[in-house]
Amino acid sequence: MFWKRIFTIVLTLGISTIGCTKQDNNEASLLVSLAVVGASGNQAAFLETYSQIAFQNYSDAYADIVLMREKVTIFTQKASPTLSELNEIRTLWRKARRSYLQAEIFRFSQGPVDNPNLTGGVELEPLMNSWPLDEGYIDTVVLTGTVTKQGLIDANQGDCSGGTCPDGDTAKNISVGWHAIEYILWGVDATNNSTPGTTITQTNFTTANGSGSTQAKRSAYLLYATEILESHLLLIKNAWDPSLSGSYVQKFKSSSTSFENILRGIAKFAGGEWGGERMTGVFGGDQEEEHSCFSDNTKADFYYDAKGLENIFNGTYIGSKTITGYGLKNLLGKETNYIKDRITTAEQFCLNEFSEDTSLNQTCSGNLISSRFDRMIGTVNVSGSATENADYQLFRYQIQPAVQEIAKSMQRTAASFGVSIGDDGLVLE
Predict the structure, then answer these.
(1) Do 366 and 322 meet the contact criterion of CB atoms below 8 Å apart?
(2) Adjacent-strand bridge partners of 349
(3) What confidence tens digit (pLDDT) does each residue in 341-373 have?
(4) Mind giving me the DSSP string for 317-347?
(5) Does the global pTM surpass 0.70?
(6) Which helix (H) or strand (E) holds 126?
(7) pLDDT digit string, tens, across residues 392-424
(8) In angstroms, rounded to a whole number, what is the distance separating the alpha carbons of residues 64 and 97?
(9) Where is 32: in which H helix or E strand?
(10) 1 alpha carbon, distance to own chain's centre
(11) 20 to 30 A from 285, CA-CA: which of 98, 118, 147, 151?
(12) Side-chain-side CA neighbours of residue 423 (13 Å)
C-alpha cells in the first residue's frame, strides 16, 4: 500500500510541477527514485520466496523418490514379490509424482530443470518427463535387449523405428523418466476402460527364472530407471540449495532477468505444455495422448500443475516444510484477480482414479470433475454417461481455456513491465 501511495504522489507531482521550483523538482525526483527502488524491492522479495519454494518443492520430490527407490531395491531382489508390494511402489510413484508436478511451474524459466548449462551439460527435462512413450521400444529392451543404467540413458530420445512410433514421430524413443517407470509398473491401459493398466502384475518382476529372464530384466529396468530419476532430481535440488557454494540460486536472486524469465516461463508452461499439448491432445479421443495414461494419474497431473502455480501466486508452499513469503499476486496489478479465478477453475478435479491406495481418493462434490479421465477422453465420439459428458464439457470449455488464459494474462503482465512475450511455444486458441 505504501508504494502504491508513492506512485500516486509521483503521478500527481508529474502533472502539477510544470513551472514549479527546483526544490519541488528534486522532491519529485526523489519520490520517483523511491518508487523504482520499491518496485525492485518487491521483485527481490518475490524472487527470494520463489527460490525457497523451488528448493523445498524439489527437496520433497527428491525425498519421495529416494523412499521409492529404497522400496524398489528391496522389491526387485525378491524371487516372488507380492501384489501388495507392487501396489505399495505404485502408490509411492503417485506420491512422488504429486510433489514433482507442483515443481513443473519452474519450467521454461532458464532454470536448471531445462537449462543444461546449469547442470553440467545434462538436459534434465527430456530425461525426466518426456512423453508419449513408444511402448514397443521399451518392450523390446525388456524382452530381447541387455538392460544397463547407462544404456537406458543413451537410448532416451533416440530414433524410433518401426510401426510403434507415437504419432509417426521417429524422435520419440523414451526410455527413462516418470512415464517410462509408469509403464514398467502398470503396462498398457486400454481405451475407455475403468482401471489403470492391467497387463502387469507382480509375477512380471520375479527373479526366480534367472537374470536373463524377461521378469529379471523388468526388475532391473525398474530399479535403474528409478535410480536415474533420483540422481537427476538431486541435481536440480542442489542447484536451488542456498547452502551450497556456487549454486544456481545465488545467481538467480541477483540476476536482472530472473523476473522476466519467470513470467515467460509461466506463459510457456500454461499455454504450451499444461494447457496446450497435454490438454488439447486428449480431445481427439486418442488414449495415447493422455499424459499419464498407464496409471490413470492424469487428473492429478493437471490438478498439481495448477497447485504449483497457486504456490508461487500466493507465495506459500505446504510440504515437509511450509514456506510463507511474497507471492506473485503482489506484482500482477489488475491481472491478480483474473489469474486467481483461473487457477480456481483449473483445480476443478476430484482425484478419484486410484485403485491401489484408496487413501488417495476424495469424495467428489457436484462442481468438480468426478469421472475417470480416460472415460472422458473423446467422449463426444463415444457413448459416455451423462456425468462423463458433462465433465468433458467442463474440462473442454472451462478448464482448458482457463489455463490458456493464464498464458495470455502473463503476456499482458509482462507488457506492463516493459517485457514482450510472444506466442512462440504457446498453443493458444
Answers:
(1) no
(2) 369
(3) 999 999 999 998 888 898 888 888 888 999 888
(4) EESSSEEE---GGGG-GGGHHHHHHHHHHHT
(5) yes
(6) helix 125-128
(7) 999 999 999 999 999 999 999 999 999 998 887
(8) 9
(9) helix 22-75
(10) 33
(11) 98
(12) 5
